[in-house]
Amino acid sequence: MSILIKNGHLLDPATGTEGIRDIFIKDGLIQKVGEYLSEDAEQVIDATGFSVMPGFIDLHVHLREPGYEYKETIATGAMAAAKGGYTTICPMPNTNPAIDSKYMVEYLQLKAKEEAVVHILPIGAVTKGQEGTQLTDIEAMAGAGVVAISEDGKSVMNTVLYKKAMTEAKEAGIAVFAHCEDKDLVQKGVLNEGAKARELGMPGISNSVEDIIAVRDIILAKDTGVRLHLCHCSTKDSVTMVKLAKEERLPITGEVCPHHFTMADDEIPGDDANYKMNPPLRGRADVQALKEALRDNIMDVIATDHAPHSEEEKAKSMLEAPFGIVGLETAYALTITELVQEGYLTPMQLVEKMSLNPAKVLGIDKGSLAVGKVADVVIADPHETYVIDVNAFVSMGKNTPFHGKRVSGKVKFTIVDGEIVYQE
Ligand SMILES: NC(=O)N[C@@H](CC(=O)O)C(=O)O
Ligand SMILES: [Zn+2]
């Protein structure tokens, strides 16, 4: 298939290109980028007024397959990704069984190849069954194609074991993605510790639950030399620690989720589990620190932590319901609305955080629309304003606190390997 994208506003931070360009795609690759291209193409897309960007790369999604297909499948999660402008997503290994062996990695890849409309790059578990006791065969999983290891959903609390995992990941040439949460300190917390938790009479989760493990993991990464990526950073002290680590030139990157820069805990209307996720919505000062950290490039990546659950599960009290909200279909709009329109990020920075930097974290040749690159492209209207409606989601998960929120920014086309996989 050949596609000619006309008159779009190209945003390609990898080459420093920002401006009106035409792009000619053929045989799955970017063939030409220029002004007034007139190539013959099977499909011409008029992208006047739209941004044309390298496809978004999500370092943190939960696809729920195998084991929890009633929440999401590889097929539905990938379709939600395409609708959100993502062309590559990295599923976390907390499935049932967990992605904790070469065989499970191969199973996931095979299913993804058959069923997913976007690229799937799996992440392997750190310990077998994510039970925290026995390391997985990290070298074998890396050989099978995992791009990182992570115990996401929890932390590896045994420091000796985790250090060994980091050493092995370093040897295998892959990164460690850290979910920072002190399992003992969190106790039974369900939302941020503070006035809202007291008002609802529910146990809180302090910032230190995250901060203590973030410090530990940064120190372990310094000891082992592994590339460490801190998932879903939610606190102002996480920001400070990533800043210090960068000043020391440690290979550490930080990720922020749209919900953590969009909403503070004081906006939780009551006992509604669509506002329950891990880490929780934090205080105003944390939200502000996260926005500034993205602006100042202390935080490198915006990732969704797309965590679908069934309506039945999320209809329960916050005390009972599982943690997590969906994010693939709202991330671009929340980033435009909360960060670009508010002056925290330039459009080029948005592309860095959602595409180029994630590619760098993974060490893959994506995140750019330069000639010769794979044609993974998103075309979006940054100005279109609308109201988020869960009934329009293609994800099986409808669990979001942003239903009814007015936002700007809508994905129009998503192109994977030169093929249109989503069109509004
Ligand atoms: N973030 C969440 O609240 N939940 C995630 C796990 C995780 O990313 O920690 C899930 O798998 O549901
Ligand atoms: Zn997590």
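^ zinc ion complex. The first strand starts at residue 2 and ends at 12. The pocket of zinc ion (ligand 2) is lined by residues 152-153, 179, 231-232 (CB under 6 Å).
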